[in-house]
Input
Amino acid sequence: MSARPVRLALGLVTGFVFAALYLPILLVAALSFFRLRRGQIQWDSFSLAWYARLFDNRQIIEALANTLVVGFCAVLIALLLATLLAFHVHQRPGPLRSALQFLIFLPFLLPPIITGLSLLVFFREIDFPRGLIAVIVGHSVFVLALVYRTVLTRLQALSRSLIEASQDLGATGFQTFRYVLLPHLRIALITAALLAFALSFDETIITLFLVGDTSTLPIRLYAMMRVGFTPEINALVTLVLLFSALLTLIMARFVGGAEDQLGLG
Output
């Protein structure tokens, strides 16, 4: 069999996959600028009215703000705890290592409905109110395993001689971390933070159990879905997509530059 038919078949499959992935996104973006009438886009109806109405929709803006606050706080907490746990496991392996890693990975591997229900029962037993703080704790527990695994993998790839050379030169533990380990962990930390933020931004089930009277964007969209979407949602989704694409480009350039500086590229 010649290579040309194979390349043609792979090209068709690839084109179909990209079309299935991105055509719905392009349609949503188009509907944020143009009107839809009888199943057809009216290309002569370009308007920014839905974006103006979006910023006037206080409920959506508050839900988006809550989602961003939860995401950033959960990522910061997970980065701190995961880094400490990864250093502990990497430097002091022992019989309790497997048990510790089991506890770290369990909330992530369990179905979200079980994790959310368990956290709800726990908070109720200690008389802790539901709300954004409870959601932040829940998301931190949920994304902790992802950040921990990423950091630990990078630590295990580092040469032990780097730490030993730093100690031989009289560096303290903090100086070794600040000037030797942190530059090599930076790429892993950024990658883990982006993945953890994406998971937190999209998490619905755990949030549903813990959010209480407040609302996050996934919960708000879920509630609106039962009565029908408004055109403001198309504008919101388009803005989120543009922000995500811009953030991805910036991070790709940053991570690529960091790899070149460290000789990893």
User: Anything to note?
Assistant: The chain has a mean pLDDT of 82. Residues 58-91 form the longest helix (34 residues).
